[in-house]
Every structure is written in C-alpha cells, then in structure tokens.
C-alpha cells in the first residue's frame, strides 16, 4: 500500500452535482485544499449563471477546473467526461506528474416526489417511469460512474469514493418515498462497492447530511416543515449547512483513512438522534 506520508501523486477530485448545494460547497472546499476539480452538473438557462459563478469561485482557488454541463445519468455523456479526464491526465503525465482521482463525490439530487398511492383525484401518483428514473439518477448511476472510472484507470490505490445520502433513507416523509428508496439503494450500493474495491485500496463511504437548505430541499413539497423541525430539534441548535458537510468531506478524504470503508457517516449535528430535550 502507498505510504500516505510520501505519496507524491497529484490528487484530483471529481464531483457529480458540482454546481449547487452540497456539490458546490464540496467542490469549493476541495479546491481550497489544492485539489483540481472535474465538475459534472446539469444546468439550463435559468440556473446556468449560478453554475458559472460556482465554477469561477472554484477556479479562483488557483487549481485546474473542468466543469461539464451534461446529464450525469446519460451513458454517452459519462463516457465523454471520462475520456476528457483521461486526456487531461495524459497531459499532466507529459508534464512529469502522476494524477489520479483521489476523491469522487456522487451528489446528484434529481428525482420525483409524489405519493405511491392516493385517493385524492386532484393529486398524482408516481408512475413507473418516474420511479425508475429517480432510482437510476440518484442511486444506480453511482455504480456506473465508479465502475467506468475504475476501468479507465482514473481511480487508484488511495482513492476515496463518497455518496451524499440523507435521513430519508431511514425516515418516512410524505411524497418523499421515491427519493427515500433511491437513497436506501445508494447506501447499499456504497457498501457493495466498498466490498469489491477494498482489495484495490479504494474506500467507499456514504455521507448522511442533516436537513440542509439547498435547492433540492426546496423542491420537496412541504419542505418548510422539515426546515422548522430541523432548526428547532437539532441538538446543535441550528440546521446543517452545506459547509459543514464540505469540511467533513475534506477531512474524510485524508490519505490516512485507508481503513475506513463501507460506512454511512452522519454529518448532522446529532439530528438523527432525535428531538432535543430542553434543559438537558
């Protein structure tokens, strides 16, 4: 195993969902730690300016940056991003350095939030296509990206693979069922990938963030109730912030954490423990 104290390889990070929420915060935190960033995001006219602003902030950290505005769940687009990254790494090797993806973060939040069953004719039930799309984007795509990166030689001994999950994997929230199922599957995928990649010195862990005010949260019907509950009940006295998760990710990406894999790690100020008791 490579000694982390003398490893002189160039440590890159690839972030799926890099333009907003957790992905943006983690991209910026990693860049400030010196990681060149390959970001994958999907933004149209309404959000493209904000995505470009995130890219500029990451670049201002002084590291190489490549942002790809593509659908991360599209197989052809995935292959194109990987080929582009391979070309960049080839250029770096010609310059006398050995790059690899030291940190890979899956932070895709695109799914449908509808009830499975309702007797209210004014409300829609989730369709098979919507259910499968939610699981494919938010869970199964993790497998395809990690597998292709591995076979492309971009992941190597010492790589740290992470996925962003949520309390929805273990808690029930109205209309959140499709995403809850996807998050539960994502955590299971992380454990299986951890098992299969550990012989290669690659670790895989899920980060379970507390309820955080992100664009993805605001798309959940009734999200105001989640915000109020998290603000009132978190033992830390406030909601989780994207920066909390980003700082944790940087720490967890340490080359010294080579023996920690297959976990779902809570970064939530103790939120999942339950309701805060006043006076204690």
Word description of this protein:
The chain has 280 residues and is of the alpha/beta class. It has one domain: Rossmann fold, CATH 3.40.50.720. The chain has eight helices and seven strands; from the N terminus they run E-H-E-H-E-H-E-H-E-H-E-H-H-H-E. It has helices at residues 21-32, 45-59, 75-94, 128-151, 177-197, 215-218, 223-233, 242-252; strands at 10-16, 37-41, 65-69, 99-106, 160-166, 203-209, 264-267. The chain has a seven-stranded parallel β-sheet, with helices on both faces. The longest helix is centred in the middle third of the chain and has 24 residues, at 128-151. The radius of gyration is 19 Å and the shape is globular.
What is the gist of this entry?
This protein has helices at 21-32, 45-59, 75-94, 128-151, 177-197, 215-218, 223-233, 242-252, and strands at 10-16, 37-41, 65-69, 99-106, 160-166, 203-209, 264-267. By secondary structure, the chain is an alpha/beta fold. It has a single domain (10-269), classed as Rossmann fold, CATH 3.40.50.720.
Number of strands: 7
How many H/I helices? 8
CATH fold name, please?
A: Rossmann fold
Q: How far is the first residue's CA from the last residue's CA?
A: 46 Å
Largest sheet: 7 strands, parallel
Can you identify the CATH class? Alpha Beta
CATH level 4 superfamily: NAD(P)-binding Rossmann-like Domain
Quickly count the domains: 1
Anisotropy-based shape:
globular
Uncertain segments are 275-280
Query: Would you tell me the overall average pLDDT?
Result: 91
């Amino acid at each position: 195993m490579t000694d982390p104290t003398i490893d002189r390889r160039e440590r890159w990070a690839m972030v799926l969902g890099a333009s907003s929420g957790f992905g943006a915060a983690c991209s910026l935190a990693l860049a400030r730690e010196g990681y060149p960033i390959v970001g994958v995001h999907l933004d149209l006219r309404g959000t493209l300016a904000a995505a470009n602003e995130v890219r500029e902030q990451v670049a201002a950290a002084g590291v190489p940056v490549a942002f790809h505005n593509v659908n991360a769940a599209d197989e052809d687009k995935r292959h194109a991003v990987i080929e582009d990254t391979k070309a960049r790494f080839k250029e770096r090797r010609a310059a006398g350095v050995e790059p690899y993806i030291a940190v890979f973060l899956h932070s895709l939040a695109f799914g449908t939030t509808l009830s499975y069953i309702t007797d209210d004719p004014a409300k829609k039930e989730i369709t098979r296509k919507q259910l499968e799309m939610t699981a494919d984007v938010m869970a199964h795509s993790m497998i395809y990206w990690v597998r292709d990166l591995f076979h492309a030689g971009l992941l190597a001994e010492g790589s740290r693979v992470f996925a962003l999950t949520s309390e929805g994997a273990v808690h029930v929230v109205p209309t959140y069922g499709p995403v809850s199922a996807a998050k539960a599957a994502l955590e299971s995928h992380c454990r299986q990938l951890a098992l299969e990649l550990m012989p290669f010195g690659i670790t895989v862990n899920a980060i379970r963030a507390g309820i955080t005010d992100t664009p993805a949260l605001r798309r959940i019907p009734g999200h105001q109730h989640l915000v109020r509950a998290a603000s009132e009940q978190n033992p830390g006295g406030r909601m989780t912030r994207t920066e909390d998760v980003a700082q944790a990710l940087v720490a967890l990406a340490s080359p010294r954490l080579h023996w920690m894999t297959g976990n779902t790690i809570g970064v939530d100020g103790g939120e999942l423990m339950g309701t805060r008791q006043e006076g204690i």
